[in-house]
Write a structure and sequence with these properties.
heterodimer, A: mainly alpha, 7 helices, elongated, B: alpha+beta, three-stranded antiparallel sheet
């Protein structure tokens, strides 16, 4: 794959990620029904619920992994793509790229949580867990952000823009 | 590019593609890229490959154990439900979320298994000094799968799920949880020990 195509794909994925960010956070990702009580949960709703039940450290982990991380990834990638071809902050951009590669996939924690809850929540009217369309938006957002970081290779940070190269 | 130094004395950094001057290394000496700091040459290359081979073999065995034993059991009002890794995937599929189910299947079952198989194949070829087919492709596949290998993230999700389920009913860890944790650790160690740089050099030298 050529560097130009990689750049275009990375840009498209980041823009798509930003578009998906709002529905991923506003539309419920799952509905939990316990003895008849139906509770739709968004990503942040799940964090709030953990916090309210006194599970502050777990709420903190889920908040960082599911709420903050996808947005940070998109913002950092947008910053890197905006500066593509310029001399500015190249070392910082290299460091940020490594950081994103290392931590990027931790945002998947919410999708796996949904999968586990769906597995154990199959007790008929007593307890059931259903996935909701928000989970699709959220997983699409994560796939976009992971692929954007994967496709934009570190060597591209050191490439000069075509105008500058001439 | 015209260098005053012959081209075979230049090494290309695999990370940032900078050209770095090659030289013989003394014991305990490393050659790092002057631009990005990536280690591009070391006298100890390949030392960890037999360990990666052993770990990938162990990982493949653990993968079976982690997938056939239940991880958690959840009880509410006397009724209980156990889950395997695949139970959630099947559950999502039957709820009409096929794409989500495929994504979880890929990240927790398929990608880790394929990653371990590719690492096993590449390490075995190096350790046995064999010219096995498709080694460059195998290395590319392993590099791609590394970031989709999400068993450690799944393990943390199991802990979060337990905490959440405790607020709704009673939860008990099953033997599968132990295998999932050991499997995740094995995968993390395999990633650390798998020296792709040495294998890429091996492939280039042998022109495979």
């Amino acid at each position: 794959m050529s560097a130009r195509l990689r750049l275009q794909l990375a840009r498209a994925l980041v823009v798509t990620g930003f578009i998906l960010y709002l529905p991923a956070n506003l539309v419920p990702v799952m509905t939990i029904t316990i003895t008849g009580a139906v509770e739709p949960l968004t990503v942040m709703g799940g964090v709030r619920e953990l916090y309210n039940t006194g599970l502050v450290p777990v709420a903190g982990i889920v908040f960082l992994a599911s709420g903050v991380l996808p947005l940070v990834k998109l913002l950092v990638m947008a910053w890197m793509l905006t500066l593509h071809g310029s001399d500015r902050s190249r070392r910082s951009r290299m460091a940020m790229h490594s950081f994103l590669l290392k931590i990027g996939t931790w945002a998947m924690i919410d999708i796996f949580l949904l999968s586990i809850l769906t597995a154990v929540g199959q007790l008929g009217i007593l307890a059931s867990v259903r996935a909701e369309p928000g989970a699709l938006f959220y997983s699409a957002l994560l796939v976009c952000s992971i692929l954007a970081v994967d496709i934009y290779k570190p060597y591209m940070i050191w490439q000069d823009s075509p105008k500058k190269a001439q | 590019m015209n260098h005053p130094i012959p081209s075979d004395l230049w090494l290309i950094c695999p990370r940032c593609h900078a050209e770095c001057l090659d030289r013989n290394l003394a014991k305990n000496e490393y050659l790092r890229c002057t631009r990005c700091g990536e280690e591009i040459k070391t006298p100890f290359v390949g030392r960890t490959i037999p360990a990666a081979w052993a770990l990938s073999t162990t990982g493949l065995i653990l993968m079976v154990l982690a997938n056939i034993y239940p991880i958690l059991s959840f009880s509410i009002a006397g009724n209980s439900q156990e889950n395997l890794i695949v139970t959630g995937i099947v559950g999502l599929w039957f709820q009409g979320y096929g794409l989500l189910s495929v994504l979880v299947f890929f990240c927790v079952i398929a990608a880790p298994a394929l990653y371990l198989v590719t690492v096993w194949y590449a390490c075995a070829a190096w350790c046995l000094n064999r010219r096995w087919r498709g080694l460059p492709t195998i290395l590319n596949v392993a590099a791609f799968l590394e970031s989709w290998n999400l068993v450690p993230v799944f393990t943390v999700a199991c802990v979060v799920a337990t905490v959440k389920l405790r607020t709704l009913g009673s939860v008990r860890w099953e033997i599968g949880a132990f295998w999932v944790v050991v499997y995740a650790l094995c995968i993390l160690l395999t990633i650390q020990f798998f020296d792709q740089k040495k294998l890429i050099l091996y492939v280039e030298e042998e022109q495979l």
